[in-house]
Amino acid sequence: MHIETPLVEHARLPGIRLKLEALQPSGSFKIRGIGHLCRHHVERGATCLVSSSGGNAGLATAWAGRRLGVEVLVVTPETTPEWVRERIRALGARVEVHGAAWDDADAYARSLSGAYVHPFDDPLVRKGHSTLIDELPDEPRAIVVSVGGGGLLCGVAEGLERRGWSTPILAVETEGAASLAAAIKADRVVDIGAITSIAKTLGARRVAEETLAWTRRREVRSVVVSDAQALMACRRFAEDHRILVEPSCGAALAAMEDLDRGVVVVCGGSGVRPADLLP
């Protein structure tokens, strides 16, 4: 389902390498784990896949469903732009809108008929995401990821453990969507109540329990940036590398500016158009 993405040196920052997950067929890293889970369901007889998504997981599920020849239904929250829903429909999936946030859409999706595809909190999704680490030629000094519900962080952590690497993870969120930072502060998963960040695809009010658990097993540094920092990082990245990514990805890109050496996962994302990044 997914491709092996390039690992390239940053054009402006010596010592920084970029894992270009924005070049995945569905536009983000999500296809790694979601593709793995979708294939699992179809191999066991599923003829319809049901997912909840702010955009990227829905695109990945729709892409996987088209490749596997099965129906797909994606439930999005009201905050997902209509043009993102149209991208999902263009891949052949049906789309329903439910709830003010992803958590509401997810609860509804679970009530529907079909094989349920969680956008981040599933062992098979995490296993699929871990393949990203298998593509690195050597152990990085650090690895930077954006965090929503934590599927990418968990997959990266699993991959690092499998290879026996002690690489610290920088887990980056935006203000107004910082559910991991809140969980670390409370030492338990908490509901932050509402998503007020522009980075709507980081919009899980609660991280997965497994995400918080990884912060207790290995070195995970929580970093929170502003929406303005994330947007500026997206603009700089477009100028430096001629690739458009959404503000959720911009969170990780903002954090790399203070990093000496390491790998940044350029997770990509559907929720952006050129005009969205204008000052």
Can you put this structure into words, describing what you see?
The protein has 2 domains: about 5-30 and about 125-275, Rossmann fold (3-Layer(aba) Sandwich); about 30-120, 3-Layer(aba) Sandwich (Rossmann fold). About 40% of the residues lie in helices and about 15% in strands. It has a 6-stranded mixed β-sheet, sandwiched between helices. The chain has a 4-stranded parallel β-sheet with strand order 5-4-3-6, sandwiched between helices. The protein has 11 helices and 10 strands. It has helices spanning about 30-45, 55-70, 80-90, 100-110, 125-130, 130-135, 150-165, 180-185, 210-215, 225-240, 245-255; strands spanning about 5-10, 15-20, 50, 70-75, 95, 115, 145, 170-175, 220-225, 260-265. The radius of gyration is 17 Å and the shape is globular. It is α/β, with parallel strands linked by helices. The protein starts with 6 loop residues before the first strand and ends in a 13-residue tail after the last strand. Helix 1 (about 30-45) packs across helix 2 and helix 5 crosses helix 7 (about 150-165).
Number of domains: 2
CATH class of the largest domain: Alpha Beta
Can you tell me the residue ranges where pLDDT is under 50 for at least 5 consecutive residues? Answer: none
Shape: globular
> H/E order of the elements?
EEHEHEHEHEHHEHEHHEHHE
Distance between the termini: 36 Å
Mean pLDDT figure: 94
How is the largest sheet built, in terms of strand order? 1-2-10-7-8-9
Strand content: 15-25%
Number of strands: 10
